[in-house]
Amino acid sequence: MTTLLLIRHGHTDLVGNTLAGRSSGVHLSSQGEAEAADLARSLSAIRIDSIFSSPLERTRETAQHLASASGKTVQILEGLVEIDYGDWTGREIQSLRDDPLWIRYNRYRSTTRIPGGEWFVDVQARVVKTLEGIRAGHSEKTLAVVTHGDVIRVAVAHYMGICLDMITRLVIRPASVSALSLSDYATELLFMNCRGTIFPL
Questions:
Q1: Residues 55 and 78 sit within 8 Å (Cβ to Cβ)
Q2: CB under 8 Å to 182, separation ≥6 — which residues?
Q3: Could you tell me if residue 200 is inside a domain?
Q4: What does the pLDDT read at residue 133?
Q5: Which residue, 155, 18, 11, is CA-closest to 77?
Q6: Domain range for residue 122?
Q7: Does 127 fall in a domain?
Q8: CA quadruple 23, 122, 159, 2: dihedral positive or negative?
Q9: Which residues of 96-134 are buried (b: 16+ CB within 10 A; e: fewer)?
Q10: Is residue 199 part of a domain?
Q11: What are phi and psi of 100, to 5 degrees?
C-alpha cells in the first residue's frame, strides 16, 4: 500500500481570478506562504517518506515548507505540472464567462479541448501515469505530492471511477490535502479537500 497526500499549492494573487496555467513567475502570496507554513506544521505529525512537486514556482514554494519541516528534499516531476491552458493562459475567468467554448469545457471536459491547450483526457492520462510511477517505486510509503487543483481532481476521478464531465463537482481548495491509499488490490479515498490541524490517517 502507498499513501498519496495530494496537496494543492497555497494561494497566489491569481487564484480564483485568472487562469495562470503554466505561466512562469506566479508565486505564493503572503496568504499562500502562511497557508503553506500552517500546512507543514499540521503534517509534521505524519511520517512523510518523500516529497514530489510540479515544476511551477507556486508548487515548489509550497513543497519547500514541507521539506524544511520534514528534512526531505523536493523531487520535481514534470508529469505533475498544471494543465496547459493554451490560448486561455493569463485570461481573467470573468472574461470567459459568456464564451460558448468555456461553458462547454466546464460541462463536457471529456470531449472539449482548450484552444491551443490540452485535452482533459490527456491531462488525466499523464497524471495517472506519473502517480503510478511514484507508487511503483515507493511501496508501503507515505508520499506528499504538491500540485494543482485540476491535477488532483483528475487523479481522484480516475481512482474513484468518476466521469470527467462531473469533475467540477469536486472541490479542491488551496493548501488542502486529499489522500489516496493505493495497492494492487484496492484503492481507497481516505479524505478529500481537508484543511486543519488533524488529518484522519
A1: yes
A2: 1, 2, 3, 4, 131, 135, 159
A3: no
A4: 95
A5: 155
A6: 2-194
A7: yes
A8: negative
A9: eeeeeebeebeeebeebebeebbbbeebbebbbebbeeb
A10: no
A11: -55, -35
Asked if residues 6 and 179 have their Cβ atoms less than 8 Å apart, the reply is yes
Query: Do residues 46 and 93 make contact, with C-beta atoms less than 8 angstroms apart?
Result: no
Q: Do the domain assignments include residue 27?
A: yes
The low-confidence residues of the chain, meaning pLDDT below 70, are 197-198, 200-201
C-alpha cell at 100: 460558448
CATH number, domain with residue 111: 3.40.50.1240
Length of the chain: 201
Q: How many domains does the chain have?
A: 1
Contacts of 44 (CB under 8 A, 6+ apart): 69, 70
Residue 184 is predicted with a pLDDT of 87
> Which burial class, exposed, middle or buried, applies to 22 when counting CB atoms under 10 A from its CB (0-12, 13-18, 19+)?
middle
pLDDT tens digits along 30-73: 999 999 999 999 998 899 999 999 999 999 999 999 999 999 99
83 Rama class: left (phi>0) / alpha (psi -120 to 50) / beta: beta
C-alpha cell read off for 92: 481573467
